[in-house]
UniProtKB/TrEMBL annotation:
Reaction catalyzed: L-threonyl-[protein] + ATP = O-phospho-L-threonyl-[protein] + ADP + H(+); L-seryl-[protein] + ATP = O-phospho-L-seryl-[protein] + ADP + H(+)
Family: Belongs to the protein kinase superfamily. CMGC Ser/Thr protein kinase family. CDC2/CDKX subfamily.
Region (Disordered): 320-340
GO MF annotation list: ATP binding; cyclin binding; cyclin-dependent protein serine/threonine kinase activity
Example GO biological process: regulation of G2/M transition of mitotic cell cycle
UniProt keywords, alphabetically: ATP-binding, Cell cycle, Cell division, Kinase, Mitosis, Nucleotide-binding, Serine/threonine-protein kinase, Transferase
Protein name: Cyclin-dependent kinase 2
EC nos: 2.7.11.22
Organism: Caenorhabditis nigoni
A Pfam family annotated for this UniProt entry: Pkinase
Keyword Amino-acid biosynthesis (UniProt): no
Length: 340
């Protein structure tokens, strides 16, 4: 464990106004301003288990590849700094992550309007299609790893990073890493990481942004599998040839059949939206809709939102207004409270 988790000591002079904005599996993220260029950035300090020996060169090489990923919907990596046996990644700063945005909706009982759901999905699929074409798998897609600017641009963070590490069960601060977006083949013990892995995670995220509720909120690996089975059905050699070969597959798993009504109810999706979700959440990884395939799905037929992204700043104003009117209602209601 590193003893000093502040970058102040190593990077003094290069950045100012550090503020911790996040903590994840691989380290701590700070908001800072780059002194020379005077631009806001997110400074990510990478923890490695081999701090004393430095960072393995293969890892550095892999991380350098992220620099070549240039896409509107992938967070830009400005720089990589190696100081005092620690690795710092300097990213463009984005206003909030998707989890923050969904948490804002929750107290006002508001769902993300349809045009936002569609626009977010389109942007996420564009980024995935770009990376998958280059055989780069994210492996850890989740709302916290998706950043959203106030102007409505969605950007995936941490691309290519996860493949340097095994699937972690605990993060930097020893919190349990979420399993909610993990595909069934990985839960069943597969060691092959294909691009279809990201599509499963994206399917779960699609349902979550449409309904503001996680689709499969499992508590441990077996409960995660059963949450999936309850909706998609227990896999068998008919709906998933080869499933019995996975190390953790058991023929005695409880039996559920595919429940479309439940999927529709949980995801709050209908028509083409529900259809695309079904095609993404297919068991055999090779039968899952690809990012490229999904972009030409009927769901995106009238894709006027590709030019006109709905504004997140406007959405936040609406949330704020609802919050204020809710507080007003509560205040006017309270004087009567002591009559009873
Ligand atoms: N470029 C950025 N701009 C603004 N905020 C960011 C940026 N990058 C990360 N964050 C914030 O910091 C949090 C943690 O960062 P990040 O996800 O990159 O850490 P991590 O170590 O990769 O963790 P995990 O493996 O859980 O994703 C994010 O959820 C997000 O809220
Ligand atoms: Mg992350």
């Amino acid at each position: 464990m590193p003893t000093d988790i502040s970058p102040e000591r190593d990077l003094s002079g290069r950045f100012r106004a550090y503020r911790k904005i996040g903590e994840g599996t691989y380290g701590v993220v700070y908001k800072a301003v780059h002194v020379r260029d005077n631009v806001q950035c997110a400074l990510k300090m990478i923890r490695t288990d081999r701090d004393e020996e430095g960072i393995p060169s293969t890892c550095l090489r892999e991380i350098s590849c992220i620099k070549d990923l240039q896409h509107d919907n992938i967070v830009t990596l400005f720089d990589i700094i190696y100081a005092n046996s620690k690795l710092y990644m300097v990213f463009e700063f984005i206003d909030q992550d998707l989890k923050n945005l969904m948490d804002m909706l929750d107290p006002v009982d508001m769902m993300l309007p349809q045009e936002y759901v569609k626009s977010f999905m389109w942007q996420l699929l564009s980024a995935l299609s770009y990376c998958h074409l280059r055989r780069i798998v994210h492996r850890d897609l989740k709302p916290q790893n998706i950043l959203v600017s106030n102007s409505g641009i969605v950007k995936i963070a941490d691309f290519g990073l996860a493949r340097n590490f095994s699937f972690p069960s605990r993060n930097y601060t020893h919190e349990v890493v979420t399993l909610w977006y993990r595909p069934p083949e990985i839960l069943l013990g597969s060691q092959r990481y294909s691009t279809s892995l990201d599509m499963w995670s994206l399917g779960c995220i699609f349902s979550e942004i449409a309904s503001t509720k996680p689709l499969f909120p499992g508590e441990c690996e077996i409960s995660q599998l059963f949450k999936i089975f309850e909706i998609i059905g227990t896999p068998n050699t008919r709906n998933w040839p080869g499933v019995a070969e996975y190390p953790h597959f058991k023929s005695v798993f409880p039996q559920w059949s595919f429940n479309l009504n439940k999927l529709a109810e949980l995801s709050c999706l209908t028509g083409h939206g529900l259809d695309i979700l079904r095609e993404i959440l297919r068991y055999p990884p090779e039968h899952r809709l690809t990012a490229k395939g999904a972009l030409s799905h009927r769901y995106f037929l009238h894709n006027e939102f590709t030019q006109n992204r709905p504004s997140v700043a406007k959405l936040k104003e609406e949330i704020d207004q609802r919050m204020r009117s809710r507080r007003r209602t509560n205040r006017t209601a309270s004087p009567n409270d002591h009559i009873f």
